[in-house]
Amino acid sequence: MAGNHFKGGDSGRPAVPPRPNGAGKAGTPGGAGQGGSGKRVSPGETAMFTALYEQSQKAKKTGRARGNVFAGGATSTSQPSGAPSVPANNAGAANAANTAGNVNAGNNTPSSGGAGLTGNLGTIYTGASETGTFARLDDSGAEFAGSGSKEDYYDFGLNYGSDASSSSTSDGLVRHRHRKGERKKRHTGAIIAAVVVVLLVALGASGFMLLNSAKTVKSEAKEAVEIVGGLKDKVTSGDFSTLPDDAKKIDELCDSMKAETSSPLWTAASFIPVYGSDINAARTMIDALSDVSSNALVPMADNLSQATPGKLFQDGMINVSALQAVADSLSSSSKVFKSANEKIQGIGDTHISQVTELVDKAKDGFATLNGAVDAAEKVAPVLPQMLGANGQTRNYLVYAMNNVEIRACGGFGGSQGLISVTDGQMSIGEFVPRIGLSEDEAVESVDEEDEALFGNHSNLYNSGNTYSPDWPRNSQRVAALWKSQYGQDVDGVVGIDPVFLQYLLGLVGNVSLPDGTVVDGTNAAKVLMHDVYWNYPVEESDGIFAAVASAAFDKILGGIGDVDVTKLVGAFERGAEEGRLIAWMRNDDEQNAIKETGIDASLPDPDDPSADPVAGVYFNNLSFSKLDWYLNADTQIGQGIKNGDGTCSYRITVTLTNIMTQEEAGKLPDYVAASAPDAARDDERLNVSLFAPTGGNISDLTVEGTQFGLGAATWHGIPFYSGTVDLHAGETTTITYTLTTSAEAGDKPLTLRQTPTCQAARDSASA
To answer: Which positions ≥6 away from 582 have C-beta within 8 Å?
Structure first.
C-alpha cells in the first residue's frame, strides 16, 4: 500500500477500517506480514493504520454523541465562526513534527468538532492526473517522500464528497474521482461574499459623496435664497438697475444645483426604498426653480431694468411703468410658471420632516404665484389705462358692504367713497352714507325684473340695496345713483366688506374710532358689524362706519408701499375667493379682464349653456335689521352623477340657523332688532334664492325644520327658486334639492357661489 494516503471529505461518510489486501484476518490491516497475497506492508505502516483506525472509531462515537457528521461532514458548532474547514481524515500539508509516525504529534489544527483524524499523511490530490507529493512510512517507521502521477486515490471505502463518483477496485478499496466544476462551486460563496463587500464599500463611498453633494446643493440654495430676498427688496424699493446681474447669478446657482442633482449618484439614490421619494422631491423642486430662473426671472429682470425707477407702491402712488413691466413679464412667462407649479404640486409623500416642510412651503408659494400669474396674464393688456396712464383720470366708487344686513352680493351699502387715479397717483374722497332718491330724481330707471323680484321703487332707488345676485347690474344702478347725486361718472364700482377690510388692516396697521377705540387686523369686522350697534347711539353708527372706512383706505393707500407684495397679493386673492372683493368696470375690455380674474360676481350668461356651471345660493335680509351677525349658512354639494343625456346631477343641502340665544334676544338694541311688519324682534327674515346654471334646472326640492315655500322663477332667462323664511332665535331650516347641469357643460365640475356672511369673522372674534 505504499503511496496510499487518507483524504477527508467535505461531506462524505466517516472512514472505516481498511479491508485486507490479502488473506489476512478480516478487519485487520492486510499485507504480506499476514500471509496475504497483497502488496507488502511494513510494520510501521501496519502500526500507523491500526492507530488511525482506532482513533477514527473513537472519533466516530464522539461525533455521533454530539450530533456531528464524522470525517468530512458539516463543522461542529464548537468550531470558531469563519474558520476554514479541516478535512477530518487528513491533516493537510506535511508537518515536520510528525516524523516519528505519531499521527497527532505536533499538529496544532483541530479537526472538525473533534470528529476527524489529524496528522501529516502527505499531499491531497484534488483531481485526476494531478502530480503531487505524498508521504509513506517505511519498515522502521520513518517517513520518505515520493512523487508521481496519480489518477486515482483512495480512502477507506467511502465516497469523498457528495458530488463525487466512485467505483470499487480489485483490492476492495474505492476509487474516487472529483466531478468537473466542483472547485468552482466551492468558491461561489467566497465570490458572493467578495462582491457584497465591494458593494458595501461602494455604497459607503457613494453615501459620502452624496452627502457632500447635498451639502453643496444646500449651500448654493442658501445663497440663491439670499439673493432672491435682496431681489424682492430691490423691486419694491424701485432699484431696478442691478436686477439683471442678480437674476443671472440666481440662474447660475440653479443650473449648478440642477446639474448636481441630475448626476448618476442622485439618480441611484432616488431608488432607495422609502427615502428615495425625498430625493425625488428635492430634484423636482430644483428642476422647477431652474426653469423659472432661466425662462422667467431673467427676462423679468431685464424688463424691469428698463422701467421707471421708483417703488411699485408709495404714498398713494402706483408706479405704472414698473407695475406694467412686472405684469407683462408674468404674462409672457405664464407657461413657465404653470409648468413649474404643476411639477411642484405633483410631488408625492415625503418622509424626512425637513423635506416635507420645504415641499409644503413650495406648494403654497407656487400656488400663490400661479394665481398672480393668471391675474397678470388677464389684466396686463388693460392695466395702464385702468391706472390712468398718459394723463388720464379714472374714478372708481368704493362700495362698503355691511354683512349684518345681508344682501345677495354681500351686504347693505352703508357708505361709498370715490377713488381717483391719474398716472398712478391715487386720491380718495370722503366716504358718504348711502344715496336715496325718488324715481324722478334718478337718471336711470330700475330694471323691471329687479323690481318684480326684489322690491318696489323706493327700495331699488336706494344705493344701499343691492338685492340682485348680479353685481354688474347692481353696480350700474349704484353708478347711476351716484351721478344723479354728485354729477360724476364712475368708471367702475368695487365692493368690499369689513372682513376684507380687516385683511388689509392686518398688513398696513390700525386706525382709531373717534373715542380712541383701536380698529386693526384682528377686530375690524367685529367693531364694524357688531360693536358700533351695541355700544354707540343709533345716530352715530353710520357715521362711525364711514369714518372707519375712510381712515382705513387712507392708511392703506399711504402704507401700501411698505407692505410685503406677496402678502398683499394673498389678501386680495383671499378676499376674491370668499366673495368679499368684487368689481365691475364700465369699459368692456376691462370688464372682461375683471371677469377672467373671477371677481365680477356676475350671474351666468343665459345664452351660454357651455359655461362653467355654478350653483348660486343667495340671501337678502327682509327684516330691516342688523341680525345677520347671528346667521349661520352651510351649503354642501354631493357627488355628481352622470346622466345618460350628458347632463350631471348633484344633491345639494343648504342649512340656515339663527344662533342667537334667548338671552341675547332679550337685550337686542332697537337698531339691531327686526322692524319689518309682523316680524318679532329676533326674527331672521330671509329671502332665499337658489340659482341653476344656464341650461340646467332644479328639482326634488324639500324643506325640513322651519317650513317655508319656494317658488320657481326666472331672472333674464336664468331659472331659480325663491322663497322667504322666518328664523327665530335658535331655529334652523334645511333645504335639499337636486341641481342638474346642462349637457353642453360636459364634465366641468360644479362650483358654489354663496352670499358671504359674518360667520367666520364672528367665530374668530369669539375664539
So the answer is: 409, 410, 471, 494, 495, 576, 599, 600, 601
Closest CA to 702 of 739, 653, 631, 650: 653
Question: Across the strands, what pairs with 512?
Answer: 518
Residue 743, judged by CB atoms within 10 A of its CB (0-12, 13-18, 19+), counts as middle
Answer yes or no: is pLDDT of 620 > 90: yes
Average per-residue pLDDT for the chain: 76
Owner of C-alpha cell 359655461: 611
**Residue in 528, 526, 572, 578 with CA at minimum distance from that of residue 549:** 528
Q: Residue 344 and residue 285: Cα distance in Å, rounded? A: 6
Helix axes 276-292, 182-237, angle to 10 degrees: 40
Q: Which of 601, 496, 477, 583 lies closest to 548 in space, CA to CA?
A: 496
Amino acid letter at 506? G
Strand 492-496 to strand 425-428: parallel, antiparallel, or no bridges (unpaired)?
Answer: unpaired
pLDDT at 60: 53
Q: Is the pLDDT of residue 156 over 50?
A: no
- Per-residue pLDDT of 341-384, as tens digits, reads 899 899 988 888 878 888 888 888 788 778 778 878 888 899 99
Cα 159 from Cα 52, distance rounded (Å): 18
Q: What is the 3-state secondary structure (H, E, C) of 324-371?
A: HHHHHHHHHCHHHHHHHHHHHHCCCCCCCHHHHHHHHHHHHHHHHHHH
The half-sphere exposure of 36 on its side-chain side, counting CA atoms within 13 A, is: 21
d(CA 470, CA 460): 14
Asked whether the beta carbons of 382 and 590 are under 8 A apart, the reply is: yes
Q: Which three cell numbers stand for residue 194?
A: 467578495
Please give the DSSP secondary-structure letter assigned to residue 82. Answer: T
Q: What secondary structure, in 3-state letters, does 692-743 show?
A: CCCCCEEEEEEEEECCCCCEEEEECCEEEEEEEEEECCCCEEEEEEEEECCH
Q: What is the 3-state secondary structure (H, E, C) of 742-754?
A: CHHHCCCCCEEEE
Q: How distant, in Å, are the alpha carbons of 124, 147, 152, 153, 177 from that of 130?
A: 10, 11, 9, 10, 11
